Amino acid sequence: MSDELEVARSAAAAMERADAAGRGVGVRLLDVAPGRARVALTVEERHVNGHGICHGGYLFFLADAALAYASNSYGTSAVAAGADITFLRPVRLGAELVAEAVERARSGRSGLYDVTVRAGDDVVAEFRGRTRQVPGLAPPG
Length: 141
Description:
This protein has helices at residues 3-18, 20-25, 56-71, and strands at 28-33, 36-42, 78-87, 96-107, 110-119, 122-133. With 141 residues, the protein is α+β, with helices and mostly antiparallel strands. The chain has one domain: Roll (Thiol Ester Dehydrase, Chain A), CATH 3.10.129.10. A six-stranded antiparallel sheet has the order 1-2-4-5-6-3. The model has no long low-confidence stretch (mean pLDDT 95).
């Protein structure tokens, strides 16, 4: 295993252990590599809104979790500086969501990431996140 992959996995393991919010929502880490991450969530009753579909806040949460793992995969603490999401299709109770984050650019302390959220083969949301490395935060891992 490469040193870069080991750093990404170590940082993700430390973040996963400390992420009470993610555990509470039901986010599961599937895979991580430098500048990339995949996370999943099964839509349960607690995630459904008054229209009987997954609340958009949970789609955003899942995409943001993928962003967090990808942007911290270099072992340096990074946080979201901003993000936008486009909801493309409704998601029903019981759906298995997978969000995949891919780094598009990293310069200095700033990063840009695209996250695609899928339910099966269907793209249900697209998310673009901007990150900033934060000196003084304990590095992941």
